[in-house]
Specification:
About 40% of the residues lie in helices and about 15% in strands. With about 425 residues, it is an alpha/beta fold. The radius of gyration is 22 Å and the shape is globular. It folds into two domains: about 10-50 and about 300-405, Aspartate Aminotransferase, domain 1, CATH 3.90.1150.10; about 55-295, Type I PLP-dependent aspartate aminotransferase-like (Major domain) (Aspartate Aminotransferase, domain 2, 3-Layer(aba) Sandwich).
C-alpha cells in the first residue's frame, strides 16, 4: 500500500526483473557489511576473480587518452568500428561496413537502443527461455511483449524449433538468439541456427544475435556466427569487450548490421538518431577494440585443456556429478553452469528459497533459475569463473544445505496431496 503522497514508480517496471542484482544481491551486501565473506557466483564478472584485461588493451587506452577528451561521432571512433568490420569479414560476413557498426556502453545499452528503434506498443519479440533477462526487460520497457520460446533441458537447451514457429504472430518483429547461451552454456548447432534464420527470413523478422561469448567455447563445440547465415533479412550481431577480453568495466560493446541492409535504411536511421541523443559512448575504452580484435586471442588458451576457464568448468561438472542432489547439462560455451536439482528428492523445491538459504547459512550467492524467465523453479545459475578450490568449496557448502533440506519432512500441503493421490 503506497503512502499517501508518495512517489510511485512507472507501471512499466511491474513486469521487469533482474534478480542477478536484485533482492539476493542486496542481502549479500548487507551480510558483507556485517563482516561475512560472500562467494558471489551470481554474475559473470571476470575481474572479480583475478582475470586481467590483456595489457596491450590497457596500453592502447593510455596512449590515446589525449584523443579521448572530446565527444566522438555517435557511432563510435572509426578504428574501433573498422576492427569490428574486419572481424566480421574474416568470419565470412562480407557486407559488414563501418557505417553500419554502432559502438555502445556495453551490449546492454545497445540491446535497449536496438529494441527502442524497432518496437511499437504491443509488438512481439521472440526470446529464448531460459534467457538473459535484460532482453525481456528491454522489450517490456520499450512497449513490446516478450514471447519466450522453449529451449528444453532434454535437448541440451537447444531451441524447440516447432514450438518457436508456432509462437509467431502478425505482431512478431524480431527473433533473439543468444549463442553461446547465457545462462545454460549451450552452443547451438549449425543446423539449428540455419533453421532459425530460415524461419526469420520466411516471416520477415529481424534477427538479433547476442554473441558476447563468441570465442568462449570448449571441447569440440563449433561457434557459428549467425550473420554468415542471414541474407534475406536484417541481422544485428551484438558483441563486446566484457567477457572474452575480461574488460567488463570498460563498458564497450557493438552492433554490426548485415543482411537486408537495402530494406533497413529507416531502421538504421532510427538507430543513428538514438545514438546521437546520448551523444556517444565511453571514448577511452573504444581505443582498446582494435588492439583486442586484432591481437593475440588469449581466450583460446584459457578455454583449452589446462586453461583456467576449462579447468573451472570441469570443477563444476565434477562437483555436480559428486552430488546426489544435482544435475547439469555440460556447458559447451560461456562462463556459467545452469544446474538442476533432483525433483524426486525435492518435489516442492523453490529456487529462490534455496538461494536465500544458501546465502544466509553458507554465504554463497547464486542466481535462481526462474529469474531467467523459465516456467520451472528447480534450477539455478552459477558462474564458472572462480578457481577450482573455490568451486570445490562451493559444492561442499551447497550439499550441506541440500542435505539439511532433504532431511526436513515434506510440506503439509504436499503430504496431503500425496495421501489423497494414494487413496
Amino acid at each position: 500500500m503506497a503512502i499517501p503522497g508518495s512517489i510511485t514508480p512507472s507501471k512499466q517496471l511491474e513486469d521487469v526483473r533482474y534478480e542477478i542484482r536484485g533482492r539476493l544481491a542486496r542481502r549479500a551486501h548487507e551480510l558483507e557489511l556485517l563482516g561475512y565473506e560472500i562467494i558471489s557466483l551470481n554474475i559473470g564478472n571476470p575481474g572479480v576473480f583475478g582475470f586481467r584485461t590483456p595489457e596491450t588493451m590497457r596500453l592502447a587506452i593510455i596512449e590515446n587518452l589525449s584523443a579521448s577528451e572530446a565527444y566522438c561521432t555517435q557511432k563510435g571512433v572509426f578504428p574501433a568500428r573498422e576492427a569490428v568490420v574486419m572481424q566480421q569479414q574474416n568470419r565470412g560476413v562480407m557486407d559488414a561496413a563501418a557505417d553500419t557498426v554502432f559502438i555502445g556502453n556495453g551490449v546492454s545499452e545497445l540491446i535497449d537502443l536496438s529494441l527502442r528503434a524497432l518496437l511499437n506498443p504491443g509488438d512481439e519479440v521472440l526470446i529464448p527461455s531460459p534467457d538473459y533477462p535484460l532482453w525481456t526487460a528491454a522489450t517490456v520497457l520499450n512497449g513490446g511483449r516478450a514471447v519466450h520460446y522453449p529451449c528444453p533441458e532434454s535437448s541440451g537447451f537447444q531451441p524447440d524449433l516447432e514450438a518457436l514457429e508456432a509462437l509467431i504472430t502478425p505482431r512478431t518483429r524480431a527473433l533473439v538468439i543468444i549463442n553461446p547461451n547465457n545462462p545454460t552454456g549451450a552452443v547451438y548447432s549449425r543446423e539449428c541456427l540455419t533453421k532459425m534464420v530460415e524461419l526469420a527470413e520466411r516471416h520477415g523478422l529481424v534477427v538479433m544475435s547476442d554473441e558476447i561469448y563468441d570465442q568462449m567455447i570448449y571441447d569440440d563445440a563449433e561457434f557459428v556466427p549467425v550473420a554468415t547465415l542471414c541474407h534475406d533479412t536484417l541481422c544485428a550481431t551484438f558483441s563486446g569487450l566484457s567477457k572474452v577480453y575480461r574488460a567488463c568495466g570498460y563498458r564497450v560493446g557493438w552492433i554490426s548490421f548485415s543482411g537486408a541492409l537495402d530494406r533497413s535504411e529507416d531502421y538504421l536511421t532510427a538507430m543513428d538518431l538514438l545514438s546521437a541523443l546520448r551523444l556517444c559512448s565511453n571514448v577511452p575504452g573504444q581505443w582498446a577494440v582494435q588492439t583486442a580484435l586484432g591481437g593475440y586471442q588469449s581466450i583460446q588458451k584459457l578455454c583449452s585443456p589446462g586453461g583456467r576457464l576449462f579447468e573451472s568448468r570441469q570443477a563444476v561438472i565434477d562437483g555436480v556429478a559428486a552430488s546426489p542432489f544435482l544435475s547439469v547439462v555440460k556447458p559447451h560455451g560461456a562462463m556459467y553452469g545452469f544446474i538442476g536439482v533432483n525433483s524426486k528428492v525435492f518435489p516442492d523445491f523453490d529456487d529462490e528459497e534455496f538461494a536465500m538459504e544458501l546465502l544466509e547459512h553458507q554465504h554463497v550467492l547464486i542466481a535462481p533459475g526462474s529469474s531467467f524467465n523459465t516456467q520451472y523453479r528447480d534450477h539455478f545459475r552459477i558462474t564458472t569463473l572462480p578457481d577450482v578450490d573455490t568451486l570445490t568449496e562451493v559444492f561442499r557448502r551447497m550439499n550441506v544445505v541440500l542435505e539439511h533440506m532433504a532431511a526436513k519432512p515434506p510440506r503439509l500441503g504436499l503430504a496431503r496431496n500425496v495421501n489423497e493421490a494414494a487413496s
